[in-house]
Amino acid sequence: MIRKTFFLLAGIIFLVALGCTRHKVEVAPVEIKPIHITIDVNVKIDRALDDFFSDVDDTEENIDPNPSATE
Q1: Among 4, 11, 16, 65, which residue has the least CB neighbours within 10 Å?
Q2: CA–CA distance, 11 with 17 (Å, rounded to integer)
Q3: Cα 37 to Cα 13, 40, 41, 44, 65, distances in angstroms
Q4: Residue 60 class from Cβ within 10 Å (0-12 exposed, 13-18 middle, 19+ buried)?
C-alpha cells in the first residue's frame, strides 16, 4: 500500500513538474516573392504568330489539294 502511494505521488509530482516548464517558440518572418509565369508570354507569342500567319492559313484553305485535270 505504501509502495503504491509512493509511485502515485512520484508520478503526480513528475507531471506537475512537466507542466511548469516554459517553452518559447519563435516564428521567423516568411518572405513572399512574386511568381512570374511564363505561360502568359507563350500564349501572347502564339496569338501574335497566329495573327501574323493568318493570311497564309486563309490561302491554304482556298487552294484545292487535288486539282482535276480537264484536258
Answers
A1: 65
A2: 10
A3: 59, 6, 8, 12, 41
A4: exposed
- Which set of grid coordinates corresponds to residue 3? 509502495
Q: pLDDT tens digits, residue range 6-43?
A: 989 998 888 888 777 777 888 889 898 998 776 666 67
Q: What is the DSSP secondary-structure string of 4-70?
A: HHHHHHHHHHHHHHHHT-------PPPP------THHHHHHHHHHHHHHTHHHHHHHHHS-SSPPP-
Write down the residue that cell numbers 509512493 correspond to: 6
